[in-house]
């Protein structure tokens, strides 16, 4: 990180990098699960469910990329070993349900994951507000997309 960037960040940058890395791990775990469910989902009208899952998976992958960029800007490194994602994440792997056409179980898995993500980014936004404008802005951007993901799946519940 450049010297001016360090000077203007009014918080513990090492601690912030740890928080961002935990969120980075969450994103890859969510990406893998949503992507996997998009591939294997079956049953009536599965194309729509697959499309929704694929869309949010792609956005989680973008979030991982945006977090990696910010971690590097702050002078850190994103986690390199995928075997260590789960133990460094905020939450366990949001494992896909056994039934590939159990829409209620799929929706619940996604909604639990998105609720966790909303909580993580809400806390990060509060922590960086007025202290690190660049991370705050990124956090709010990701938060708004996680809110949309939750809404999208909540709307599928009858
Ligand atoms: Fe995300
Ligand atoms: Fe999400």
Structure description:
The chain has 158 residues and is an all-alpha fold. Helices cover 70% and strands 0% of the residues. α4 packs antiparallel against α5. The protein is elongated and about 55 Å long. It starts with a helix and ends with a helix.
**Residue fraction in strands:** under 5%
The structural domain count equals 1
CATH homology-level superfamily = Ferritin, core subunit, four-helix bundle
Mean pLDDT value: 95
Q: Find the structural class using helix and strand composition.
A: mainly alpha
* Low-confidence spans: none
Extended strand count: 0
Q: Which of globular, elongated, flat, extended, rod-shaped describes the shape?
A: elongated
Distance between the termini: 49 Å
- Please outline the major beta sheet: none
The molecules bound to the chains, other than polymers, are: fe (ii) ion
Q: Give, in order, the helices and strands.
A: HHHHH
> Could you tell me the radius of gyration in angstroms?
17 Å
So what's the CATH class? Answer: Mainly Alpha
Helix fraction, binned, reads: 55-70%
Number of helices in the DSSP assignment? 5
CATH architecture: Up-down Bundle
CATH topology: Ferritin
């Amino acid at each position: 990180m450049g010297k001016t960037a360090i000077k203007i960040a009014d918080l513990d940058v090492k601690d912030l990098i740890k928080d961002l890395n935990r969120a980075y791990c969450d994103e890859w775990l969510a990406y893998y699960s949503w992507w996997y469910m998009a591939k294997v989902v079956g049953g009536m009208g599965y194309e729509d469910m697959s499309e929704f899952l694929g869309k949010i998976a792609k956005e989680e992958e973008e979030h991982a990329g945006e977090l990696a960029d910010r971690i590097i800007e702050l002078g850190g490194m994103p986690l390199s070993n995928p075997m260590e994602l789960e133990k460094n994440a905020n939450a366990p792997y949001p494992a896909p349900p056994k039934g590939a056409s159990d829409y209620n179980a799929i929706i619940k898995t996604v909604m639990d994951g998105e609720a966790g993500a909303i909580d993580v980014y809400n806390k990060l936004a509060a922590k960086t507000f007025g202290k690190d404008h660049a991370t705050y802005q990124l956090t709010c951007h990701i938060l708004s997309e996680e809110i949309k993901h939750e809404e999208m799946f909540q709307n599928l519940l009858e």
